[in-house]
Amino acid sequence: MNEPEMIQHKIEKARLKLNQMERMYGLGDAKVIQQSMYLDELINEYMQMFIVQVK
Q1: Which Gene3D superfamilies does its entry note (predicted)?
Q2: pLDDT in tens, 4-44
Q3: pTM recorded for the entire structure
Q4: In terms of CB atoms within 10 Å, which of 17, 21, 28, 41 comes out highest?
């Protein structure tokens, strides 16, 4: 599995966890917000790979 595929896998796991947490705790819960921020970081990392490749 190459690096982009590994990050895609992490993104999917983080997204599923976020959805589960949102159902359990609601959107305003600190744990849900923290998980959302983690997902954002993964997505940014993934996007940076392709920005670097395009340049």
Answers
A1: Helix-loop-helix DNA-binding domain (4.10.280.10)
A2: 999 999 999 999 999 999 999 999 999 999 999 999 999 99
A3: 0.88
A4: 21
